[in-house]
Structure formats: structure tokens, C-alpha cells
Amino acid sequence: MLTQYSEYLIHRQWMKHALELAKFAGDAGDVPVGAVVIDANGNLIAEGANRKERDRDPTAHAEIIALRTAAQRLKTWRLQPCTLYVTLEPCPMCTGAIIQARLGLLVYGVDDAKTGAVRTVENIPDSLLSNHKLRVIGGILEDECRQQLKNWFANRRHRVNYE
After folding, report:
1. Parallel, antiparallel, or unpaired for β 34-38 and 44-49?
2. DSSP secondary structure, 105-124, as one string
3. Is 35 strand, coil or helix?
4. Which is nearest to 57 in space by CA: 90, 93, 88, 18?
5. Of residues 7, 20, 47, 63, which has the active-site annotation?
6. Are residues 73 and 45 in contact, defined by beta-carbon separation less than 8 angstroms?
7. Does pTM surpass 0.70?
């Protein structure tokens, strides 16, 4: 049985991987958000990074991409034994998909004060809209996740002002 500290270290490890994916998204011109799905045995089964701009697809959020890939690999849409790690608190669309997937655990890095639908602006998982009890852990590598987003938006504003 894992101790709380060893669980925390595992959460940090996977969030670091999600941060790497987020960097790729940011470098490609998308908002830097990364996500990974881990199975019950601790194996990486899916990953995603924002692709809205690159794919010109409003649903191409990191979470959606990772959930789709996980469902395809597991050959089921029921992801109860899985954990999703994502660098930013999911929006309403992604939170709905997470609930529909019956995800076992959501772990996210930083709250989203504008569109966070898990705890910050809305609390969809605990609302009457939810037909699934979602376990949630927030704040894993929070400072790193926040700084990555701040830096990306600052650089984007700087480029726009000088182009």
C-alpha cells in the first residue's frame, strides 16, 4: 500500500510529464496545457496537448485528446480505473467529458479563475448535472503550472505588441 507521500511523488512525476506536453503545445502556438492518462497499474496509456489552433478545432483540448486516446486503447469509454493529470483546471466541456468517461481520479495543477469547472468558477462534478462521483486533487505543481501559463501569455502579448 502506498503512503500519502509516495502517492504525492507519483502525482508530481505525472504532472511533470503533463507540463512537458504543455510546453510543446505552447511552442506550437496553442495555450500550454498538457494531459496524461494513467491506468490502474500506473502505466501511461494516453497523453494530449492543446491543439485548438493547430487543428482549428474548438474541441481539441488536451483533456479531450487524452481521454479519446485512452478510450481507444482500452477499447471502452468507461475509464473508472484511470487517473487524468492535467496542468490546468478543466473547462466545462472537458469536465463534462471527464464525468461521461466515469474517470476514477482527476489531478490538476492550477485553478482556472476564468473557466474552471471543477472547483473554481463552477463545481460540475458535485452538482446535480453529474451522474458520477469524481475524486479530485488540485494544486499538484501549482506554481510551475501557473508560471508556465503566465510566461506564455506574457510572451504572446509582447509579440503582438511588437508585430
Report:
1. antiparallel
2. EEEEEE--TTT-TTTTS--G
3. strand
4. 93
5. 63
6. yes
7. yes
Q: Which helix (DSSP H) or strand (DSSP E) does residue 135 occupy?
A: strand 135-138
- Mean pLDDT, the chain, integer: 95
> For residues 72 and 46, what is the distance between their CA atoms, to the nearest angstrom?
9
Q: Is the distance from CB of 136 to CB of 99 less than 8 angstroms?
A: no
3-state secondary structure at position 79 = coil
- Distance, CA of 160 to CA of 136 (rounded, Å): 36
Return d(Cα 64, Cα 6) in angstroms, integer: 28
Distances 154 to 34, 59, 64, 128, 137 between C-alpha atoms, Å: 19, 24, 26, 38, 28
Alpha helices, DSSP H, located in the chain: 4-27, 52-55, 62-74, 92-100, 142-162
Residue matched to cell numbers 501569455: 153
63 is a catalytic site residue: yes
How far separated are the first and last CA of the chain, in Å rounded?
55
Cα 25 from Cα 122, distance rounded (Å): 26
In tens, the pLDDT along 34-69 reads 999 999 999 999 999 999 999 999 999 999 999 999
Determine the Cα–Cα distance for residues 35 and 107; give it in Å rounded to an integer.
10
